[in-house]
Amino acid sequence: MTNARRDMLKVFVAMLASFGAGVAALPLFRSLVPARHLEPRNPDLHVDITKLKEGQLLTVSFRGRPIVIYKRPEHVLRALAIGNSDLRDPNSERSHQPDYASNIYRSLRPELFVGVNICTHLGCSTAFVSPGTEGVGSPIGRSGGFFCPCHGSYYDLSGRVFKDLPAPNNLAVPKYDFPDTNTLRLIDI
């Protein structure tokens, strides 16, 4: 074989190896770029609350998590204001919520509770127990709240967990605001 043919064969093999390495590296480079369906299309969610009646619960999905919006009746607000020594974290000092939700109502507006509907024990979805109904042996009694059917944790209608139950913290409260009186905007979890 002549030197010219040998040199041409080396160049061809080098080009073929470079092409093969590029093709082999393509999946690696694609994995570094986030998938378009996972990128947030709209970081905020606007929820129309005009049709939400007193005592009604609305559940929306925000960033893959269920968010509950509950319009509390006046008698529920009065019951929450009394306080409860059976709560694990009644003042929400260890719980995940924005600063403006560090009150007994854990909300911007006392009549609206906005919370992540995921038990803080093992991440189960909680069930809503409306006021006036009573669970057998339930610490929430007739005042209503949220109940984790998997492991038995109870939360009041401010999302505060009762003592001596598996859940360590109150339900999380996402960041939200009211761009106008009829719209609740979820900002962050």
Description:
The protein starts with a helix and ends with a strand. With 189 residues, it is of the alpha+beta class. It is built from two helices and nine strands; from the N terminus they run H-E-E-E-H-E-E-E-E-E-E. Helix content is 21%, strand content 22%. The strands form three sheets. The chain has a three-stranded antiparallel β-sheet, with no helix packed on it. The protein has a three-stranded antiparallel β-sheet with strand order 2-3-4, with no helix packed on it. A three-stranded antiparallel β-sheet has the order 5-6-7, with no helix packed on it. It folds into two domains: 3-33; 45-188, Rieske Iron-sulfur Protein (3-layer Sandwich).
How is the topology of this model organized?
Layout: H1 3-32, E1 45-48, E2 57-62, E3 65-71, H2 74-82, E4 112-116, E5 127-129, E6 145-147, E7 154-155, E8 175-180, E9 183-188
**SS content category:** alpha+beta
Using the CA coordinates, give the radius of gyration. Answer: 27 Å
Query: How is the biggest beta sheet arranged?
Result: 3 strands, antiparallel
Low-confidence stretches: none
Supply the number of structural domains. Answer: 2
> Looking at the structure, what is the overall shape?
elongated
Question: In CATH terms, what is the fold-level topology of the largest domain?
Answer: Rieske Iron-sulfur Protein
CATH architecture of the largest domain: 3-layer Sandwich
Strand order of the largest sheet: 1-9-8
Q: Helical content, roughly?
A: 10-25%
CATH class of the largest domain: Mainly Beta
Strand content: 15-25%
The first-to-last residue Cα distance is 70 Å
**pLDDT averaged over residues:** 82
